[in-house]
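Hello support,

Our group uses your service weekly, and this is the first time we've seen a run hang past the timeout. The protein is FMN dependent NADH:quinone oxidoreductase. I'm not sure whether the cause is the sequence or the server load. Input pasted verbatim:
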Amino acid sequence: MATVLYITAHPLDPQSSYSLAVGKAFIESYREANPGDEIVHLDLYKENIPQFDADVLRGWEKLRSGSSFDQLTDAEKSKVARLEAIVDQFVAADKYVYVSPMWNFTVPPILKAYTDATSIPGKTFKYTENGPEGLLTGKKVLHIQASGSVYSEGPLAPLEMGYSYMNKVLQFYGIQSIEAIFVEGTALKSQAQAPTIKEKAIARAKEVSKRF
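Update from on-call engineer: The timeout came from a worker crash unrelated to the input. Re-ran successfully.
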């Protein structure tokens, strides 16, 4: 049995969001094909994801300097413990499905915060004499990303910093099996094609779910 983290980063619902609609189709199809797997849905807009603020940085520094957890302030304890729980849950999973829109050429701030929370030395990567080394080899990722224009190819491709950012971070963790489904071009002048674009992406999601 595999554990799948279904990580969504959109504040609306599948009826209002192209990315969530495709993600919903994928996860329903995946569940049907893999009834024994555990699927954990992380709606990042409903999760407590601490920012890397003064409490976090000071708490970590105290721990590195030899202080015990009990010597941290209440705020430091709460945030440091929560970040530890987030990355431990992430490391324990086998597969990851990220669902997000592309906002201002990149991922939503809440997904960036979650990615910060999972980028912890000794957990998802380690430092060696030869440089950083990813610790999550053998895991799989699917990223479903929606955007109003087309960024996966063509003249706007250099501006795409959503999937490309996630891809680099996940490879840094040692994950090599990374696939993407782009739901793009839905806000162009030919808006009448938006439903077709969504349906094609849903069909692709169902196909990918059978082999993910």
